[in-house]
Amino acid sequence: MKILVVGNGGREHALAWKLLQSPQVKQCFCVPGNGGTALLERCENIPLAVEDIDNIVKVALENQIDLVVVGPEVPLSLGISDRLQQEGIPVFGPTQLGAKIESSKSWAKTLMAEAGVPIAQGETFTDAAAAKDYITQQGVPIVVKADGLAAGKGVIVAQTIPEAHNAVDDLFQVGFSLIVVEECLIGEEVSILALTDGITVRSLLPAQDHKRIGEGDTGPNTGGMGAYCPAPIATPDLLQRVDQEILQPTVTALRNRGIDYRGVLYAGLMVSPQGEPKVLEYNCRFGDPETQAVLPLLETPLDQVILACVQQRLGELPPLRWQSGTAVCVVTASAGYPGKYEKGKAITGIQEAETMGVTVFQAGTQLDGDRLVTDGGRVLGVTAIGQDFDEAITKVYQGVDCIDFEGQYYRRDIGHRAQSRKS
Ligand code: AMP
Ligand code: GLY
């Protein structure tokens, strides 16, 4: 089988790496890929933008690709799956309409409300004055969200009324025409990445991301600074409830709207101190960096699971097999991220780290001749597997300590919630 992976992050490196482990997968192409996918055996980068759907379809046809796996939300929301399906190319990832579950928060909230899925109470606004009145009535803390894709910058958790009012003005000013204002939920977050063929849903092991740049979950939001899997907050009871009360009803609601959703349904949940889960948001794709912590534990060949989704026979697949133990991924970033940062810094120590038993997934990297250099904000995702959480944590930081580039920044406290849960 020849597979084309769309995207250039750590998530796509992990997807290509995992897919290539399957005896069925002969070759992988990444569009555009990064330094990590360029170095993978039997993998080739194709330098096209992820939004360049016409040319991606052309490349898939020319190379007789058997399956396309789409990483990021932007091409999905632009309809890449619709276009590939029209050409008869099997694709894992929802259609443009299905991707609205991520690209429109108001659409997703209406769908979830219809399905009886627990969510934060809120309202949708097209007008700043009405949104501000509502905020003043409700009080703080309160959450203001852009309705469209905003690369992680569209959610403001406001602690004061002026902050919430400013957030409303800012979002309308940058061009959003619809915003959502909703109650601020408290608790602990968990990411449930589920795979679906439009009928059956199978959850992957639960993971926990670390969205803030600073240790102790401080500072601005990022794409994610580290993840671990499985996350102990997601007990078997909770996972069963999430399946029955959240994931299954969502897939049914999608079907009722005529949406045949074949791809990842990623539920970002807040679990209250009483253990009640509510959906903060849905994403229509694999999480990054969650994927770099989840996939290394998966023993069932990934291509088999994905093909079962694409061919709508996920229900026939035996339960997914998982390696026991814990995986931890620590992201290392360029100085200045998530703000301005420089590129082109030489990266050293990856091989030394890998000889210590970690896997280094590359994100913002590229090959400059035979030198590997930084090319983005999040640069690497270093993943270790341990028999337990403590072993994985020790191992992952031993790996990270081998790696260097000018200005490298990473959090030393990945997994702190799992640590404090134990103690
Ligand atoms: P998003 O950009 O949609 O991934 O949301 C980013 C983050 O905002 C989430 O991971 C939460 O930490 C936070 N968030 C979103 N909605 C709420 C809410 N209703 N209450 C509390 N925090 C929220
Ligand atoms: N790790 C958060 C996301 O993928 O959206």
Which labels suit this protein?
423 residues; alpha+beta; Rossmann fold; Dna Ligase, domain 1; D-amino Acid Aminotransferase, Chain A, domain 1; five-stranded parallel sheet; five-stranded antiparallel sheet; 15 helices; 33% helix; 26% strand; globular; binds adenosine monophosphate; binds glycine
SSE order and pairing:
Blueprint: E1 2-7, H1 10-20, E2 27-32, H2 35-39, E3 43-45, H3 53-62, E4 67-70, H4 73-77, H5 80-86, E5 91-92, H6 100-103, H7 105-115, E6 122-125, H8 128-138, E7 142-146, E8 155-158, H9 161-173, E9 179-183, E10 188-196, E11 201-203, E12 208-209, E13 212-214, E14 218-221, E15 226-229, H10 236-256, E16 263-271, E17 277-283, H11 290-294, H12 302-310, E18 326-333, H13 350-355, E19 359-362, E20 365-368, E21 371-374, E22 378-386, H14 389-402, H15 416-422
Parallel strand pairs: 1-2, 1-4, 2-3, 4-5
Antiparallel strand pairs: 6-9, 7-8, 7-9, 10-11, 10-16, 12-15, 13-14, 15-18, 16-17, 18-22, 19-22, 20-21
Helix pairs in contact: 7-10, 8-9
Bound molecules: adenosine monophosphate and glycine (GLY).
**What's the oligomerization state?**
single chain
State the low-pLDDT regions, or none.
none
CATH architecture of the largest domain: 2-Layer Sandwich
Number of domains: 4
How would you describe this structure to a colleague?
The protein has 423 residues and is of the alpha+beta class. The chain folds into four domains: 2-96, 3-Layer(aba) Sandwich (Rossmann fold), CATH 3.40.50.20; 122-183, 2-Layer Sandwich (Dna Ligase, domain 1), CATH 3.30.1490.20; 188-316, D-amino Acid Aminotransferase, Chain A, domain 1 (2-Layer Sandwich), CATH 3.30.470; 326-418, Alpha-Beta Complex (Glycinamide Ribonucleotide Synthetase, Chain A, domain 4), CATH 3.90.600.10. Helix content is 33%, strand content 26%. It has helices at residues 10-20, 35-39, 53-62, 73-77, 80-86, 100-103, 105-115, 128-138, 161-173, 236-256, 290-294, 302-310, 350-355, 389-402, 416-422, and strands at 2-7, 27-32, 43-45, 67-70, 91-92, 122-125, 142-146, 155-158, 179-183, 188-196, 201-203, 208-209, 212-214, 218-221, 226-229, 263-271, 277-283, 326-333, 359-362, 365-368, 371-374, 378-386. A five-stranded parallel sheet has the order 3-2-1-4-5, with helices on both faces. The protein has a five-stranded antiparallel sheet with strand order 12-15-18-22-19. A four-stranded antiparallel sheet has the order 6-9-7-8, covered by helices on one side. Strand 20 and strand 21 form a beta hairpin. Helix 8 (128-138) packs antiparallel against helix 9 (161-173). The structure holds adenosine monophosphate and glycine.
